[in-house]
Amino acid sequence: MQRERVKIFLKIIFIIAIFILINYTNGNSRKVTIFENVVANLISFPQRFIVNAKNYTLENNEYFSNVERLQKENEELTQELKEINEKLLNYENLQAENELLKKHIKLANLYPDYSIIVADIITASTSNWEYTYTINRGSKDGIEPNMAVIAESGLVGYIESVTSNTAKVVSILDAGNAVSARVTRTRDTVISKGSLSLAEKRQMRITNIPIGVSLIEGDKIETSGLGGIYPKGILIGKVRSFEQKSNPVENEAIIESYVDFDKLETVAVICVSQE
Which H helix or E strand runs over 61? Predict the structure, then answer.
C-alpha cells in the first residue's frame, strides 16, 4: 500500500514537471510558484550532475593526458642530457689524452741527443724520509737501475729499482741523493744534495763550492756529466741564496729546482746516449 502511494506521488511530480517544462518552453512569463521551483530544481539537479560529471571527466582526461605528455618529454630530455654528458666526457677524455700525447712528443723532441722512454707517474712518496716516485715502465720496456730521469723543465732523479712493469725513481730532492753539478756561468764543479728540510720548497743545497767562487742569485746549476748516471748539461735548478762561511770550504748555496714536483705527471728515462 505504501509503495503504491509513493508511485502515485512520483507520477504526480512527473506530470507537474512536464507541465512546468512546457510552460518554460512556451515562454510563459507568469510567476513561478515555490512548489514549481522546487520541482524544477529536482529535475534539473540530475541534469546538472550529468553535465558537471561529463565536464569533470573531460578535465581529468585532459589532465592525465598532459601528465603523460610531460612524462614523455621528461624522459626524452633525460635521455638527451645523458647523451650530451657522455659526449662531453668522451671529449674531455680525448682532450686529456691529446695533452698527454703532446707532453710525450715534446719530451721526446726536447732531448734529441738521447734515446728516451716516456713514462707516467703512478704513485708518489713525498714524506719527510724520502722523495720518490713510481712510473709505469719497467724492465720489459728497457728500463734499468741508475738511468737518469728528466722532465720537460729539467732533472728529476734516477732509477733506483725496477720490476717488469714499473720502476722506482729517487728524485733530486731526496735527502739520499747527491748530483755532480756545475755552475753554468763559471763552469765550476759543485755538488747538489737533497735535504729533508728543503724538499717541500723544491730546494737543495749546493756544497763543495771551490774557494774564491761566489755564486749569485739566479745562477743556473746543471749536471756536470761526472759520476756515470746523469748526462751533462741537464738543468737542475737556479741559485736562491749564497752563504759565505768563515771557513770558505763550508760555503754553500740554496738552489730551487726547475721541476715543479707537485704537478709532475710525465717523465722521460734516458736510456742510451746517441752521441
Answer: helix 34-110
